[in-house]
Amino acid sequence: MLRRRTVGDVMTEEVVTLRPDTPLHEAAALLDANDIAAAPVIDEDGLPLGVVSASDVLRHETGMPDPQGQDSDDEHAWDKARAHTAGTLMSSPAFTARTDWTIPRAARELRQRHIKQLPVVNDTGHLTGIVTRSDLLDAFIRSDNEIHDEIEQDVLGRILGLDKGTVAVNVQDGTVTLRGHLPEPRLTPAVVGLCQGVDGVIAVHAHLTTTRTG
Fold first, then answer.
1. What average pLDDT does this structure show over 91-115?
2. What is the span of the domain harbouring residue 126?
3. Distance from C-alpha of 73 to C-alpha of 138, rounded to nearest angstrom
């Protein structure tokens, strides 16, 4: 099987975290100093409780409403307006991802929840990293050389067992062109399908001849 990259492959493992009692001015300073958009709030055991984002801090300071309507409850909105710590300002519960999630699953979760990052937890629920929209985009924006090597080594060599040089691979701006001769007609759709499944591939053009049987 062709291995698809997961959240664990692209996440940032060194995570800037906050505690529930972290003062807001310290939280804002940490976000600014590390040039990050958000930080998870964790308890003393390392379990995510919520997330404080730079936009949360900005809205708190300016008194602007939550554009996603997450603070529609008047009492909750009032609590946030009076917030002085990360624990009272954070968005909770913390929506999290798992290291074994596929990239498309994590991207779908971000889109559905209208958020830009997800804390990543392990099997025990403890924080192990964080994944952002840009991390997920980077998984698909790969160099032509990376795509070429994966197709040649993994798809054609390891999975299909074809001798090197049987199929010539050219990759230009994510578009793959295949030229060569295959020993069996049934291999053509397999080659094309597997190449289409490689992260970063935009299109596959196959110019493959086969040995007819029967």
1. 91
2. 7-140
3. 37
